Amino acid sequence: MKFFDLDQWDEILQTITRNKSRSLLTAFGIFWGIFMLVFLMGGSEGLRRLMASNFAGFAQNSCFLMTNTTSEAYAGLQSGREWSLELADVDRLRHGVGAIETVTPLCAKWGASFKNGNYAMNGTLKGVRADYAAIEDPHLTYGRFLTDTDERDFRKVCVLGKRVCEELFPDVDNPCGRFVSLDGIYYQVVGVTKMSSKIGVMGSAESSVLVPFTTMQRLYNWGNDVMAIGYTARRGYTVTELQPQVDHIIKKAHLISPTDTQALFSFNMEVMFRMVDNLFRGIEILVWLIGIGTLLSGAIGVSNIMMVTVRERTSEIGIRRAIGARPSNILTQIMAESIVLTIIAGLFGIAFAVLLLQGVETLTAASGHDASFQISFGMAVGAAAALTLLGGLAGLAPSFRALAIKPIDAIRDE
Questions:
Q1: How confident is the model over 189-218, as pLDDT tens digits?
Q2: Spatial separation of the C-alpha atoms in residues 86 and 105, rounded to whole Å
Q3: Half-sphere exposure of 218 (CA within 13 A, CB side)
Q4: What backbone torsions phi and psi does residue 129 show, to the nearest 5 degrees?
């Protein structure tokens, strides 16, 4: 079959449209199969990105330590004891665990009041050091992050979260250099983050304001107590590998039983990322199974209909053979009809899935979430190639059935 032979293309289309209802019902199986595959793949990838955006900025190889009441009596101390992490623990971990790359303290005040003139909101006020950026990248839109000098000089400077900036400075593009009231104390804005993650340690990043750790400790008179300690592992190590050693050092320093699993809580970002990755890997496998299964059922439908078509065209095929048509011509003709029917139905399925995914993405963006629900170009090309292959496979059995027809049998059948 010549690709640009218009007569043969016209014959293929006439054969397909000869029985419109049957062709439409057959094509629907392929349409639905490829639609399900593409839509579910694009949807699962969009959900993966949406979930990943909730952890945006966090170092995957990081962990946060927080305290809880003890659950076991130890060293003459009763269970149910309240205790706190302290600044000395930061030095203990820095010098006691060589595989730790960054270790930094955190403190926070929930429900803090933020004001700028007539604009006000409540959020989380966090005290952090400059090296906190190694654990949670602030992705600055304007200005700079906190520095060691800010902490050393107890400066009243702050970095605003994305939502805080929008609420307090709705008509200002760059608020850096301006002053805001944080719990009644004025701070100068030195930076604005663009992080939109909904998950964060001691409060989401977009609804938080970051100030120097020492400034917050002094203003709230918290002494040497810290609410959490964050750390990252050096290249070649994981925080999961370091966790037993970290727990041992902290528990030993605070007279906590080594077997007490409740007293020290670890928020392991490595585990969280792995859980999300495994979840969506499982979803992806399920999507492929559903999509391929539906596609195969559609291909079987195409093959069955083509078998019926071949049976109806027995005399036509016999006459072709009688007047000198080569077996390759018959084979190509039947397979081309199967491939064309499959590709047309499949392309409509891909287009419909892409349009629906675009609608989902628009609705998601309108609700304030940033995620792409579109399939990649490679996935679209792969789907088109799969359709061509599927159409060819669906046409194999009918094609060989057509080749088995002998001219004399076809005339006798007529």
A1: 999 998 766 666 788 888 899 999 999 999
A2: 8
A3: 12
A4: -95, 170
